[in-house]
Amino acid sequence: MKRKSQMSDDERVRDFQRKLYRKAKQEESFRFYVLYDKIRLPYVLREAYRRCKRNGGSPGVDGVDFTRIEREGADEFLKSIREELETESYKPMMVRRVFIPKANGKQRPLGIPTIKDRVIQAACKMIIEPIFEADFQEQSYGFRPKMSADKAIGAIKQNLKEGRDHVFDADLSSYFDTIPHDKLMKVLAVRIADKKVLHLIKMWLKAPIKDNDGNVNGGRKNKTGTPQGGVISPLLANVYLNILDKAVNRMNGIYKRKGVKIIRYADDFILMGKFIPDSVLEYTAGILDKLELEINVEKSRLVKARLEPFDFLGFTFRYDRDKQGRPFKYWNVVPSKKSESRLIDNLRTYLNTHSTTNSRWLCRNMNMKIGG
User: Fold this and answer.
1) 153 contact partners, CB below 8 Å, separation of at least 6
2) Which of 26, 27, 169, 296 has the most crowded Cβ, counting Cβ within 10 A?
């Protein structure tokens, strides 16, 4: 076994995460009191910076990018962060809001924190994530270590094979923008007793948002939402919706009695059963109402998958005849028409903007995009 002095920053972080996970798994009601000092450890901040740099991304409202940080000295940058955390003088800057196009022609808002804020969020996430991972249900596949959309798709196909072909395809209205801060903080406090960590998270939730026109909204009066684009936002989103996951998996609960299972990827989820009665849908609506979340009725639907296909995570699930057209049928999973159209549009745009690029380099990048 390596000594700590011989371990890389990544190895040291993972070693500490394993200890937190084991403790949280062994004691389901344990609350963690001393976490803030771990966030500002030099090796934690170095690893957080490395991961943020690897992910790249645009600068925040201060215009500082990784090139500038590297030029002026990453060590000095991290040292200043550590000092701010030690003296508790750290205050997050405003979040820069940008919009990216959605497949339906609308725009999705993204909140881009400064690199400094992203690094501190990443450090915090690395420390608290294993605690909540110990509580998460196995039917949650989005933005989690060792989980993926591929595994979610595999689980859906397995449920269909087992006869759970009644599917409630749910769509939450503006989930990330509507998470109530007060209830989210109470859920976090079930496991985290360190007030300094909770204060950090609350500051990120309350950070004002600045758009490209210079308009600022949010701030202390902001009571809902966690910006998509923040490093810690996906974890917070999973923590809050874990309440729904637990309700579905509760022994002797209505879902268990009716044989209904859930597959969730962040804010997208489906319920699957051999039959899904109205009582289950009403109970689900009641849980979401208590969470102050709303189902988009127009986009949510109950499907009998043997009779009509349904889309989830960019794929279409359908009950198909075999290639020879014989009566034998099987569950087929193919890219959805919407996903195909979006890919073609992206490739067309890419080709138009890189028409003079070296052909070998262009082919390599096109293959990467096509392969995902």
Assistant:
1) 312, 313, 315, 333
2) 169
The answer to whether the beta carbons of residues 144 and 235 sit under 8 Å apart is no
What is the pLDDT at residue 49? 98
Spatial distance between the Cα atoms of 190 and 175, rounded to a whole number of angstroms? 22
Tell me how far apart the alpha carbons of residues 54 and 46 are, in angstroms, rounded to a whole number: 12
User: What distance in Å separates the CA atoms of residue 190 and residue 207, rounded to the nearest whole number?
Assistant: 23
Q: Measured between alpha carbons, how far is 372 from 369 in angstroms, rounded to an integer?
A: 5
Cα–Cα distance measured from residue 124 to residue 160, given in angstroms and rounded to the nearest whole number:
39
- Intra-chain end-to-end CA distance of the chain, in Å: 37
Walking along the chain (372 residues) 10 residues at a time, the average pLDDT comes out as: 77 97 97 97 98 93 96 97 98 91 73 96 98 98 95 97 96 94 98 98 94 72 87 97 97 97 97 98 97 92 95 94 71 86 76 75 76 66
157: CB partners within 8 A, 6+ apart: 317, 331, 333
HEC sequence for the chain: CCCHHHCCHHHHHHHHHHHHHHHHHHCCCCCECCCHHHHCCHHHHHHHHHHHHHHCCCCCCCCCCHHHHHHHCHHHHHHHHHHHHHCCCCCCCCEEEEEEECCCCCEEEEEECCHHHHHHHHHHHHHHHHHHHCCCCCCECCCCCCCCHHHHHHHHHHHHHCCCCEEEEEEECCHHHHCEHHHHHHHHHCCECCHHHHHHHHHHHHCCEECCCCCEECCCCCCECCCECECCHHHHHHHHHHHHHHHHHCCCCHHHHHCCEEEEECCEEEEEECCCCHHHHHHHHHHHHHCCCCECCCCCEEEECCCCCEEECCEEEEEEECCCCCCCEEEEEEECHHHHHHHHHHHHHHHHHCCCCCHHHHHHHHHHHHHC
Which amino acid, 67?
A: T
